[in-house]
Amino acid sequence: MSYILDTMGNLLHQTAFLNLTWGNYLMIAVACVFLYLAIARGYEPLLLVPIAFGMLLVNIYPDIMVSPEESSNGIGGLLHYFYLMDEWSILPSLIFLGVGAMTDFGPLIANPISFLLGAAAQFGIFGAYLLAILMGFNDKAAAAVSIIGGADGPTSIFLAGKLGQTGLMGPIAVAAYSYMALVPIIQPPVMKALTTKKERAIVMENLRPVSKLEKILFPIVVTIVVCMILPTTAPLVGMLMLGNLFRESGVVRQLQDTASNALMYIVVILLGTSVGATTSAEAFLNISTIKIVILGLVAFVFGTAAGVIFGKILCVLTKGKINPLIGSAGVSAVPMAARVSQKVGADEDPTNFLLMHAMGPNVAGVIGTAVAAGVFMAIFGI
């Protein structure tokens, strides 16, 4: 009988129920909320489902993220090895490869003024950088946090790793991906507050046709120009443009299909679960995390507002030919931000089709956020 009681006691003490803290239970609840938003509400499920599940796993079984040095047998946890690929910038770069292979850069080529709208939306990043320094972050940590304003998860992870801010990578990545998923909730109130009904109802002229030669030359020229000016952006910009060249060249259809489908989804699984697994209660529930979440929201709102305001300026300069709503798509949440521009415009005029016009600033925002990351790396001599 004593053997049975001892065995049952050992089993009981091995369960997670007796080993978790209140913080673990809180993070498990947060993970369940994220799963609800992803599954029931459809908020970027491809991102939130793996992130939330990684969050769930690490708070039930923390050893799933343990490093070999910390483990008793010298073997790291499963998600630790996934996370190493985040730190080494492998997964963020491969995400950009997939985005490039999936995305039509034609709207940006057809309307080069979109570059200005994409650049304007990066104001949120640099504004948040100054605010982060005022809130007590050191310069590199402030730069890593501020990039959340671009609503670009891979770039946020990439920059945090390059600047040696791996301790903040979890909160930064979760905040960035959360705001990407919440674009349909965060952006519309800002867009409507800064525009009039008349401006939101502006119908833009059809974009000019873009030739195949232009589409092939674009990724090559952008890679040469951007990477010559900021070589440190090569992993992101280079992979983005390589993926797009796969798409537009027409001679490597198999590579484009792999990059935009199988490889992309494999990388999303690895990156999402590893990012979620950085949110153990011990690492996540602190004042720095709260500051990062607040700063990320402020940066995202500022970026959206700056894009819309610059859109209003261009609207005046072009005598009403540009709908200011497309400026909000200058953040790099592709293609969600462009879809939000379309939806807010359609709410005023159901016949108005802004999606392709908004894709120009949206693609420019992806490039702009990568360039902003490169600027920070150049400033700090990385």
In short:
The protein has 21 helices and no strands. The chain is mainly α.
Helix content percent band: over 70%
Shape: globular
| Order of secondary-structure elements | HHHHHHHHHHHHHHHHHHHHH
- Backbone structural class: mainly alpha
Amino-to-carboxy terminus distance: 65 Å
Beta-strand share of residues: under 5%
Can you offer a commentary on this structure?
72% of the residues lie in helices and 0% in strands. The chain is built from 21 helices and no strands. It is globular and about 85 Å long. The model has no long low-confidence stretch (mean pLDDT 89). α20 crosses α21 (355-379). By secondary structure, it is mainly α.
List its salient traits.
0% strand; single chain; 382 residues; mainly alpha
Topology:
Blueprint: H1 2-14, H2 22-39, H3 45-60, H4 78-87, H5 90-102, H6 106-110, H7 114-120, H8 123-134, H9 139-146, H10 153-162, H11 166-181, H12 183-194, H13 197-200, H14 212-229, H15 234-249, H16 253-260, H17 262-276, H18 281-284, H19 287-317, H20 336-348, H21 355-379
Helix pairs in contact: 2-3, 3-11, 3-17, 4-17, 5-10, 5-15, 5-16, 5-17, 7-19, 7-21, 8-9, 8-19, 9-10, 10-11, 10-21, 11-19, 12-19, 12-20, 14-15, 15-16, 16-17, 20-21
